[in-house]
Known about the structure:
The chain is α/β, with parallel strands linked by helices. It contains nine helices and eight strands. The protein has one domain: P-loop containing nucleotide triphosphate hydrolases (Rossmann fold). It has helices at about 15-25, 30-40, 45-55, 60-70, 90-100, 115-125, 165-180, 185-190, 200-215; strands at about 1-5, 25-30, 80-85, 110-115, 125-130, 140, 160, 195-200. It has a five-stranded parallel beta sheet, sandwiched between helices. A hairpin with a 7-residue loop joins strand 5 and strand 6. The protein is globular. The protein binds BIS(adenosine)-5'-pentaphosphate. BIS(adenosine)-5'-pentaphosphate binds near residues 9, 56, 59, 173 and 201.
Amino acid sequence: MKIILLGAPGAGKGTVAKLLSEIDGSVQISTGDILRAAVKAGSELGKEAKGYMDRGDLVPDSLIMKIMEARLQEPDCEKGFIMDGFPRTIPQAEELKSLLQKLSISLDFVVNLEVPRDVILDRLTTRRTCSNPACQEIYNIKSNPPNPDGTCKKCGSPVIQRDDETEEAILHRLETYNAKTAPLIGFYEKEGLLRSFRSLESKKTVEEIVKTLEA
Ligand code: AP5
């Protein structure tokens, strides 16, 4: 499959992307995961991105496009990909359109995950994430807890709260989403690529996405 996942912070993009990638081996490309791994590694990219991320601001488009142009040309993308958290602004969506044309890649469609704001706020304050940059498994202390000793069920590393999970940063991320990312819904509607799913149960959403792909 070749799809984009759109949705507010906490809508469940990462959770749905991981489930979808298990179906046919399509690779999950999360710009958030790539940036968090760069921050942890202390690379130049990570140093530049950290301040933006901790505040809940978007990282500049030029940095993200450089990452994505290289990432989409890696061999594991040939089988299929699920873009999680990219594109995030109209300029990113426009540049992606040209990039896909240049690489002769056509998307199946763009999934918009619709989740009520109160559910989102609850999910973000209860989320926990594996601290191992190569794993980054997502947990939730209510709906999907890690091991009782606070370690990851997949790799055994400590499970932590992200640096952008303070109440202030969460509210700012939601404002940033409304101002900069929500306009992509209209953009992809005009392109005829948008498919919206009310998403309260991730497994059910995944089944609906697969049915839509098969139709
Ligand atoms: P990113 O990592 O993409 O964060 P986000 O979009 O804010 O999304 P989240 O990861 O917070 O949420 P999600 O929708 O993946 O939800 P999840 O599955 O975890 O980006 C982080 C930062 O990086 C940005 O703020 C920005 O600075 C930068 N960045 C990234 N991409 C960029 C770009 N393209 N341009 C510029 N800057 C960029 O689920 C949330 C919680 O809910 C979890 O605990 C999960 O277990 C739980 N949950 C999920 N589904 C369900 C369910 N159905 N029922 C119960 N619980 C559920």
